[in-house]
Design brief:
464 residues, alpha/beta, Rossmann fold, twelve-stranded mixed β-sheet, two-stranded antiparallel sheet, 31% helix, 20% strand
Length: 464
């Protein structure tokens, strides 16, 4: 925290002198020529927080296409993750990387083809967003929902032309919690007559965390269905733990339950939870026990075993992530983006030291309330995701007790099955669930083209 105090005066000065509106970016280091789309970056002040955003205007018809607010999960993962790996019109040129600032290239199947997208580093402490006070770094699920709501309102006041178009909220992973709270805040604000009124039409949740118990319990169900554990262990777990696995503890759980769960944990220890079909990458240095230690890239990207991208059979998904560190931490990149130099020490894709309190275990009641508001909703999941399994997502949707209007069926891209979908409706509220075949967590990172087609159809009210 000492480093934070050293920057406080500088940060306050930045905030006081910041002009309304953002910075139009026409070129970026690593990209050849001018950007073929309109990119604006900037900050919006929300109390003690300076929230950084990337706004990409629709490449279709920006006066009529919807506006999508998007932020990533974690909590603490930068919206740049969504822009570069999931939903945006840029991607890294991985196959030809030879060092230095990574090269960028245009990606044609971007969600910005058919919608304006406002990517925000939320909550504070994520990406390039920062606090001007020591206390401002601390945030919770509840506060994150309010902080992003206030950000959105202030951004729209500065960009009033987008108040007229349809508004959708999109989040993935852990942000299913705060994103649900955000949608609820918008609905309540509109009903209370707060201005500006936001033209909310719906929301999109990718592999979302909604209920802690359902999510944890679904991992056992998914592991059994996909064949990671056998019938005997599954039945033992279900009976001895009463099919409840969120708080297994040696001192409070039965010995049979605890032992079965420990055995299960050992069986899946070396599985890549984000995509069970992909390898789990390892540190270059062994632990004291002599075994290679599995860790996330975010802890130290420079010390990771990164397979050469030209050798697909040795490919490590985390190589993609490493390139984002090298790119976003380049001073020339930050200057081009209009980042206030010195406000963020080291940019990280996902901030694991975020001062964040998880104060909401479930937003199921929020969704029950939203199901009476006539919104359009898309929920989707990769079918090889063990972090937030599709089994749990389908389970919490069933709790809403909606009427099925289009039963389970395949959906296609280029004549091939891209996944399966089911549609529900109740009093004007329409919820579509879609699985993405062969995708992990988050699905766009694995099946970017298919997810674009899913989004394009949904956002323009076509059947998926």
């Amino acid at each position: 925290m000492t480093k934070i105090f050293l920057h406080l005066l500088l940060l306050v000065a930045f905030s006081a002198s910041a002009a309304l509106g953002g910075n139009i970016v026409t070129t970026l280091p690593g990209f050849d020529g001018e950007l073929p789309f309109k990119l604006e970056t900037g900050y919006i002040s929300v109390e003690d927080a300076e929230m950084f955003y990337y706004f990409i205007e629709s490449e279709g018809n920006p006066k009529e296409d919807p506006l999508l607010l998007w932020y990533s999960g974690g909590p603490g993962c930068s919206a740049f993750n969504g822009l570069i790996f999931e939903n945006g019109p840029l991607q890294f040129n991985i196959t030809e990387y030879e060092g230095g600032v990574p090269q960028l290239e245009y990606y044609p199947y971007s969600w910005t083809k058919t919608s304006s997208v406002l990517f925000v580093d939320a909550p504070v402490g994520t990406g390039f967003s920062y606090s001007t006070t020591a206390s401002g770094w601390y945030v919770s699920d509840t506060q994150a929902g309010w902080q992003t709501y206030k950000f959105l309102k202030k951004w729209l006041i500065q960009h009033p032309q987008y108040l007229k178009v349809q508004l959708f909220i999109g989040v993935d992973s852990y942000s299913g919690i705060s994103g649900s709270l955000l949608v609820n805040n918008i609905v309540n604000g509109n009903e209370a007559g707060l201005v500006p009124r936001l033209n909310l039409k719906g929301y999109i949740l990718g592999c979302p965390r909604i209920d802690a118990d359902i999510n944890e319990n679904s991992k056992i169900v998914f592991s059994h269905r996909i064949g990671l554990i056998n019938d005997e262990l599954y039945e033992t777990l279900k009976e001895s733990c009463n099919a409840s696995y969120n708080d297994i503890d040696e001192s409070t759980s039965s010995p049979e339950c605890y032992e079965a769960y420990e055995f299960y944990s050992r069986l899946i220890k070396d599985i890549n939870k984000n995509d069970i079909l992909e390898p789990k990458c390892v540190w270059a240095s062994p632990q004291s026990s002599g075994e290679l230690s599995y860790r996330s890239l975010e802890e130290n990207p420079d010390n990771f075993i990164l397979s050469p991208p030209k050798i697909p059979e040795f490919w490590c998904h985390n190589f993609n992530y490493a390139m984002s560190y090298w790119w976003a931490n380049d001073q020339g990149v930050q200057e081009a983006l209009g980042v206030r130099l010195g406000t963020v020490g080291d940019w990280v894709r996902c901030n694991k030291s975020l001062q964040y309190t998880m104060d909401v275990d479930s937003v199921l009641d929020i969704h029950k309330n939203l199901s009476t508001k006539g919104l359009q909703v898309l929920i989707y999941n990769g079918d090889h995701d063990l972090t937030i399994p599709s089994t749990g997502t389908q389970q919490w949707i069933k709790v809403l007790d909606l009427t099925i209007v289009n039963d389970w069926r395949p959906w296609l891209v280029d004549g091939q099955i891209a996944g399966y979908t089911i549609k529900y409706s109740e009093h004007g509220y329409r919820l579509t669930y879609a699985s993405i075949k062969g995708a992990g967590h988050s699905p766009q990172e694995y099946k970017r083209r298919e997810c674009y087609e899913m989004f394009r159809r949904f956002i323009h009210y076509y059947p998926i």
